């Protein structure tokens, strides 16, 4: 059966994962952190301050060691990956599973003048906070004119 999908996300997922529709064939479908399952991940607020910019990103359920921040070619990339614990315990059969494993990332253009030393990051209670210091602006020298006599 061909099922329409957008970016590997079936349009019928919600229908097929209802508790009354469980014949076992869809219960082992791959769970991912993108598509409509990831629509609420990595929501970001960006604020300009006197010293630079502050970026706050929601990453609920992630641990600090599952998050990476990199600076490459003028872009700041925030990526996170999560694996579900697959320990097999005989605690019953799942009726519905909504926790997903996989990877997600966001990229922000920050310019070529920003250096790694200008970036500070912290992670508390599922919120990643990244502070970007403004690089020192090169002062434009004013033209100094010499008076001409005559």
TrEMBL record:
It comes from the Bacteria. InterPro entries: A-crystallin/Hsp20_dom (IPR002068), HSP20-like_chaperone (IPR008978), Small_HSP (IPR031107). This is Hsp20/alpha crystallin family protein. The lineage of its organism: Bacteria, Bacillati, Bacillota, Clostridia, Lachnospirales. Belongs to the small heat shock protein (HSP20) family. PANTHER family: HEAT-SHOCK PROTEIN 20 FAMILY MEMBER (PTHR11527). Residues 35-149 form the SHSP domain. PROSITE patterns: SHSP. It comes from Blautia liquoris.
């Amino acid at each position: 059966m061909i099922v329409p999908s957008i970016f590997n996300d079936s349009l019928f997922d919600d229908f097929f994962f209802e508790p009354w529709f469980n014949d076992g064939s869809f219960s082992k479908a791959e769970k991912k952190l993108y598509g409509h399952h990831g629509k609420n991940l990595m929501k970001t607020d960006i604020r300009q301050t006197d010293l630079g910019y502050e970026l706050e990103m929601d990453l609920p359920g992630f641990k600090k060691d599952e998050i990476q921040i990199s600076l490459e070619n003028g872009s700041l990339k925030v990526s996170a990956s999560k694996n579900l614990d697959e320990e097999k315990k005989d605690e019953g059969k799942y009726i519905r599973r909504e926790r997903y494993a996989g990877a997600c990332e966001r990229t922000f253009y920050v310019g070529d003048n920003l250096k790694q030393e200008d970036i500070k990051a912290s992670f508390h209670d599922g919120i990643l906070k990244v502070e970007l210091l403004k690089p020192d602006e090169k002062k434009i020298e004013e033209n100094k004119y010499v008076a001409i006599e005559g």
